[in-house]
Amino acid sequence: MTSAYASPPGGYPPAAAPPAPPAVVATEVSKVYGSGDAAVHALRGVSVGFARGVFTAIMGPSGSGKSTLMHCLAGLDTVSGGQVRLGDSEITRMSDKQLTLLRRNRIGFIFQAFNLLPTLTAEQNIKLPLELAGRALDQRWFEQVVEVVGLRDRLNHRPSELSGGQQQRVACARALVARPEVIFADEPTGNLDSRAGAEVLGFLRGSVREMGQTIVMVTHDPVAASYADRVVFLRDGMVVTELTRPTPDAVLDTLKRLGA
Amino acid sequence: MLKTVLAGLLAHKLRLVLTGVAITLGVGFISGTFVLTDTVEKGIDAQFAASADRVDVAVLPKKPGPELPAALLARVRAVPGVTEAHAMVQGEAALVGADGKVVGDSPTAGLSVSDGTLQRYEIKQGRAPRGPSEAVVDDGTAASQKFRLGQSITILDRRERPHRFTMVGVVDFGVASGTAMNGAVGFDTPTALRMTGMRTLKEIDVLGGDKAAVAGAVGGSFDVLTGKELGDRLVAEVGGDTEIIRIGLLIFGLISMLVSALVIYNTFSILIAQRTREMALLRCVGASRKQVFGGVVAESAAVGLAGSVFGVVAGLGLGHGSIALFNAMGAEIATAGFGLSPRTVVIGLLVGVLVTVVSALLPARAATRVAPIAALRTDHEPGGGRFRLAWPRATAAGVLGVSGLALGVHGSLIMKKGGSAISMVGIAGLLVFLAIIAMMPAFVRPLGWLVGAIPARIGGVPGRLAVENARRSPRRTATTTIALTIGIGLMSLFAVIASSAKASTSAQLDKEFPVDFQLEAQFSDGETPRTIPHELAAALRGVPQVGEVGEMRVRRSEVDGRPEEVGTLNTGALGTIIKLDFSEGALADLKPGTVAVNSDVAKSRGFGPGATIKIKTRRGVVPAKVTGVFGGDAPAPSILMTEPDFGRQFGAVEPTEIYVNAKEGVPAADARSAVEQAAKPYATVKVRSVVEVKKELTKIIDMVLMIFAGMLGLAIIIALFGIANTLTLSVVERTRESALLRALGITKRQLRRMLSVEALVMGVIGALTGVGFGMTLGWAATNAMAKSAIFAVPVLQIIGFVVLAGAAGMLAAVLPARRASKASIVESLASE
Domain ABC3 transporter permease C-terminal, which positions (chain B) (predicted)? Predict the structure, then answer.
């Protein structure tokens, strides 16, 4: 076993009719670091779409380009070729300033570690993206999110006074409270023990099921991936296969076949 | 270990540069001071050597000893072998300027100038004077009066009779003559003796003959020197002046070094905290505590050495640059070669390295406490979190603060005003400042909250984050800001003292000089004070624009056997133009046969009310009863008697000062021109108004303040490097945090603004502490100075200091901010 997570309980939602336009689409995206002999092709023409209201995991062995793909999808990094669309905006053409505004208004992030600002309380951290965007806070929605992640009595604590799992739940709440078009999660459970990890993954899946949130998560953990509705596999900078309604075993098998 | 240290230094050049700059600036100032004073000294030496070289033998008065009688010249000339002898005469000969009034507040010096080989001044234009109708003028005065060669000039003799001369030369009399302040005119020796009224000589320079022969001729009561000995003596006399300048500048240099030390201490503390892993790794692979300690100390020594080397080079530039600047501004500083002595280099390097190493000792000790296991742990933020005063620090701060405050209160409120009270306040200030240093980390959070209230409110999220960032590591912020506090604190202290001094004197002048104009003769160091003809007072009384006229008459006399000034004010002036502040008795008690005494004299001589003193007059020694004591700073003679008494005892004496009030309703300008018209025939009489006196005073005080501010500017610049340093290191530390913010949607500009606001808050915290400290100390010092001192706060200046500190802090943030905003988000997220 590579993970101690329990398998996700319960069944899957009924497969709906194919949802209208996908939230994020990558078309022939390539990414090259360096040049000449030293050039490293991190992505070699990746084309993939991410449907709205779906929890998608991106997997692949180390060096497969999964993190690079996520960075390009989220407008954190520039592409060498191809295009990325978020809704009807082509983000590969945007300036740094436009990208910043895009991230602020339409994208949520959860990182593996160092997710919170140490100088702010949990509540301030959660509200940060809304305040940056200058958007009004929907108090009821905030209450609901805080309730779901179970942070009510921790709101006035600073990150240094919270456990790793609690910190990551604050990060989840922060991503959810702004109701972004898509949340990108980069190894969100990488630094957590199995129980805390399962909790966080549970919230993420719950937010997709109950709130219709779109989530794209990069992970190398088959159990974490099994919480997703769909798993996209990368190897050597290309999409090689994908699974829907994955189980940890199916994910593990696929990875083995890919030679991980 | 040394190899590791050097490799680490080279790998982090920026770190090296930032730390080194603070040291470079401090050392640069110190070595610049030495270069400047050495160069000036060398120039003077060369000048003296050159002029003394021409002399074979010189005769000078012994110190102490009688002056050289004029008759001595003939005796020296008669010595066999003597081919030429020049008598140096130096007295006063007031030059009349282009406006018909004498030049300057004191008469110009009158000197004898030789037209032979013994001529030792630098003749810039024309030639030396010959005969009774030729004179030369010093270059500064000739330029300011716009005199041209060949023109006719008027010079007053000792008895103020005008004589006309042809100006045949413009001469630089040099530093040795001591005439730079008042200017000078030169004649041939007989004319100089006649004009100055001197009967003695300053020096006799001899060509030919030998020392023994001349010594035999003049006898044992005078010094006889060879040319070389003369040069050495002149150099020694002026050397004292350069020494004072040097010490003055070095005090400011030391302040700069103190600030540098704080900056270095802080930089090393942060570096050590950030390199905890590196240190732990070294421990893991087998480095001992001693080696880690040695490594940090070696690193500081290397940085200190590099910074000091640059500092010495910078000092060389600074020293020569300032000479060039002074010369461009009209000063004439002779330069002879490069004034970089080995001593300058040694002192510069030694001070720089020592200060750096000593500042790094505490951080180095902290480095040894890093456990090897820390290499494997993810560390949390260094130096962060709330600051709690540990008991040793709290005790130290308490003891220092309380004793400082107690001494301050004692010095400023209880002790007798004057020098020792001021010293007491000074010591109190030092103690309180040390307490502030100890307590500062505890002040950072509340002060940061206070200062940050506005930026946090109007700066949006970046503003709020910035304020939090400034408050997050109290120790770090405290040390960074204390460096600024020193400079700003001293500046506010001087500003407050200067403004209080202005207010106090101004109030004093208003109180004791209810006069519109004051007429006085040029000040002279002669035996009797210069006087104004009584006719002028009489004439003024006839001028329609003039109201009251007061006259002060003074005689130097002896009271109870010791010299004292005795005088009078005319009856009409007492209580009208001149209001005396009586501490004992009253003006009404001053009757014939009695005197009132200045309080300073009353105190020092013990002339209390009721005492009878014996005054020497031209009618012999007469007794007088003391009936009153008046304020020390009043414009009245020390021993004041009634006008009839004074006339009886001393006869007709001309007034030394005349006070004039304009008639009610007459515009000041009209009154002034009327008074000036009346005074026109009297070349030595100057008309001054209280407003002018105040202006002059203000000008002098402001100039001194400007010089101080300029010198302290360096300490402030170093402190700003400290802010830049701290911010740069913080930016490195917060790489991932910045990346997270960028990912969450903060723009580059917002990120830059965040750092600017953080620097602004730090700058203002430092400035506020400094301003608070400086003003309080200024208040205490003002109180300690004199009973009548008025405390005045130069509000605009003080606000200016705070604004300046904030703006400068933001300037210091420019580079770190650019660096932070340029970092790639993806790479920064991945970095550790």
Answer: 251-370, 711-824
